């Protein structure tokens, strides 16, 4: 199967408010796909719809070839989900939470033991298994949530803003786990509003804003859309301004026209530049 997710014409409203506005999106089997957008863009809503936690108004969603409206249980069996607010039971230990998830997925007790042991070792949680949830830091809770989400061996893992609230070290450790899971065959769909996270992790990135897909592609392609070379310049107390060019020669030509005393940086365009240009979510730019 080439595309593990196929979304066509998805519309989701909350009363009068349109949260997802005619979304078409495909995710390829085996990739790390990043859904990048500012707060309120519609990322969580899309993930909740795909994982059958929220209903939708129009369109079709196929997960692993299953129409989620017609065959929700088959679609759900393919999906592991880690919500932004971790949904572990605080009154239980990590191991008990994992057992609860196994029971939910009707996994036999021998198989359950095997999977919990193997997964907790794989994710590096073995020594914390009998801790109560709240004794662990955010990064460890996230790892426990990942084990729970993987207990039924899903083909695709959804992670909604996985590193919000984590310190840099915990964030990097989580990135490594995500990469390793992907290397070992799990397709990853993550949402983020961190540009560097999308750039560091994702094979392809979809930029979403106000419920619409603005652009999609590998991070380096999105960067070159606006021009490979960026010029940042600042003169006379005006805000820093940005211009984008196809190459250094064109950039240098522009720089030579700037008045004396201008502070200038010429650099490669990054994903943040394209994001700002494509979403228009910034002020003070010169076109
Ligand atoms: N349960 C809800 N009821 C009403 N409006 C909602 C609800 N959930 C989300 N929204 C609105 O839908 C839009 C998309 O939200 P969301 O999917 O949470 O965005 P993101 O995850 O990108 O921050 C926002 O305008 C948000 O206010
Ligand atoms: Mg969200």
Strand-helix topology:
Blueprint: E1 3-14, E2 17-28, E3 32-36, H1 43-50, E4 58-63, E5 66-67, H2 72-77, E6 79-82, H3 94-104, H4 109-123, H5 138-150, E7 156-160, H6 168-183, E8 187-192, H7 195-201, E9 204-209, E10 212-217, H8 219-225, E11 229-234, E12 241-245, H9 248-256, E13 263-268, H10 271-279
Parallel strand pairs: 3-8, 3-9, 6-7, 7-8
Antiparallel strand pairs: 1-2, 1-4, 4-5, 9-10, 11-12, 11-13
Helix pairs in contact: 3-5, 4-5, 5-6, 8-10
Bound molecules: adenosine-5'-diphosphate and magnesium ion.
Could you list some keywords that capture this structure?
287 residues; alpha/beta; Rossmann fold; 3 domains; six-stranded mixed beta sheet; four-stranded antiparallel beta sheet; 13 strands; globular; disordered C terminus; binds adenosine-5'-diphosphate; binds magnesium ion
């Amino acid at each position: 199967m080439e595309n593990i997710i196929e979304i066509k014409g998805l519309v989701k409203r909350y009363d009068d408010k349109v949260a997802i506005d005619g979304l078409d999106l495909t995710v390829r089997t085996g990739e790390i796909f990043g859904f990048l957008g500012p707060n309120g863009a519609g990322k969580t809503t899309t993930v909740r719809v795909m994982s059958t936690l929220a209903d939708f108004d129009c369109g079709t969603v196929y997960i692993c070839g299953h129409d989620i409206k017609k065959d929700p249980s088959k679609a759900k069996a393919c999906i592991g989900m880690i919500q932004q607010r971790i949904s572990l039971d605080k009154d239980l230990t990590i191991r008990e939470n994992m057992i609860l998830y196994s029971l939910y997925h009707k996994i036999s007790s021998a198989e359950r033991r095997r999977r919990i042991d193997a997964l907790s070792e794989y994710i590096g949680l073995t020594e914390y298994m009998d801790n109560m949830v709240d004794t662990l830091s955010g990064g460890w809770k996230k790892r426990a949530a990942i084990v729970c989400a993987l207990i039924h061996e899903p083909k695709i893992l959804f992670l909604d803003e996985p590193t919000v609230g984590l310190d840099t070290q915990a964030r990097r450790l989580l990135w490594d786990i995500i990469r390793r899971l992907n290397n070992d065959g799990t397709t990853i769909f993550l949402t983020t509003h961190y540009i560097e996270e999308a750039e560091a992790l994702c094979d392809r990135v979809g930029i979403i804003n106000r419920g619409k897909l603005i652009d999609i592609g590998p991070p380096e392609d999105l960067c070159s859309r606006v021009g490979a070379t960026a010029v940042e310049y600042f003169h006379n107390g005006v805000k820093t301004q940005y211009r984008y060019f196809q190459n250094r020669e064109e950039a240098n030509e522009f720089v030579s026209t700037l008045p004396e005393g201008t502070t200038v940086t010429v650099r490669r365009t990054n994903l943040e530049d394209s994001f700002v240009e494509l979403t228009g979510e910034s002020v003070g730019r010169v076109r």
